[in-house]
Amino acid sequence: MSDVFGALAPIFLLILFGQLLRRRRMLPESFWPSADRLTYFLFFPCLIVDELARADIGAEVAGMAAAMVTGVLASAALVLAARPLMRMDGPAFSSVFQGSVRPNTYVGLAASKTLYGSAGLGLTAVGIAVVVPLVNVLCVVVMTRFGRDSRGTGVRAVLNGLVRNPIIVAVAIGALLNLTGIGRPPVLGSVVELLARAALPVGLLSVGAGLDFGAARAAGAGVALAASAKLLLVPVATGLAGMALGIDALMVTIAVLFNALPCSASAYALARQMGGDTGLIAGIITVQTMLAALTLPLLLVLF
Prior knowledge:
Helix content is 80%, strand content 0%. By secondary structure, the chain is an all-alpha fold. Helix 3 (61-82) packs parallel to helix 12, helix 4 runs antiparallel to helix 5 and helix 5 (105-146) packs across helix 12 (249-259). The protein starts with a helix and ends with a helix.
């Protein structure tokens, strides 16, 4: 247990350091949106391409993918089924739904690399290839149905958003390089690798800078429901499905780790774009990020 806590502690300390940098105004306020954009459109896609190009993708990862999908769909189904019992409007519900399924991949890649090295990082990249497209589809569909400003967002807009998503594009490129046997191309591959190294530190600092403790203090039942679903239901359902399918122990662990991640800050951007409750999603992201410092190690030890 102490080894797991010790390995994950630097990740959450780096997140807190990002919050400190923003509170102390050690960098211009304009730095953080620029850092987010650079990480999202360049550093993070380079990391995905680099890891997927070199990952050992065999037929056995299908079981891991199935377990991860099971966990996400279980949470989505439960939250949708509970919708009639919730005393909240559509925009608030859409934010709770996002908070119940969307993972923070920055934290996941950092944790898997720290705990399980290149093998864990490669499997996490495979997990991203499966879960990120699924979660994006689910969240956009729910936002289309329940968001405040979602008129005119139909199937074409959903598909267009997925095709232009830099993470999904990176997954497609990395998978193509892997499955064709090309792997990491000479020269260009080295450039991609160098850019990829900036993804995790800059991404984690940005996660910390984006925490909203004011929204967290105003947290209510919606935040509690999203945290229970995302930090407990999704990973437990994933772990049980993985064991039932008889997949490799490391794959079960990585699947649980990835599906136990707190909600991503990208949920805030989607809520703002499609009429969700931005105050509620800010509280959900902040509370989950803080709670994950405890729930992640406990779930990893359990599974």
